[in-house]
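Writing this down once: the sequence line spells out the residues, with the fold written below as integer tokens. I am pasting one below:
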Amino acid sequence: MPLYPVPGLEVFAWDEGGWLGSLARNGSHPMVYLRRDGAVFQAAEDVYAFVQLLRDGTDWRAGLVPEPGIQVYASREDAAREWSFLRRKASPR
């Protein structure tokens, strides 16, 4: 599976094992769990599905599905070494 750059992960919660957030990808926003070792898992298809898991009392951690096509970088500079479009300067606003 090819790796594609991900514009960002909007983290809204964390625990001792990692971070939970919404991932912007190809028009969808799956809820993902980023483990401290860099592994990424899908927790739900979107925030609405995640909220439904919480309402139902379902253990969302038990349903985590690996997301092998996502590469996490320690910094933007590290990502720019591999992705040339990140080396371009942002236009001033």
About this structure: The radius of gyration is 15 Å. The chain has a mean pLDDT of 83. The first helix runs from residue 47 to 56.
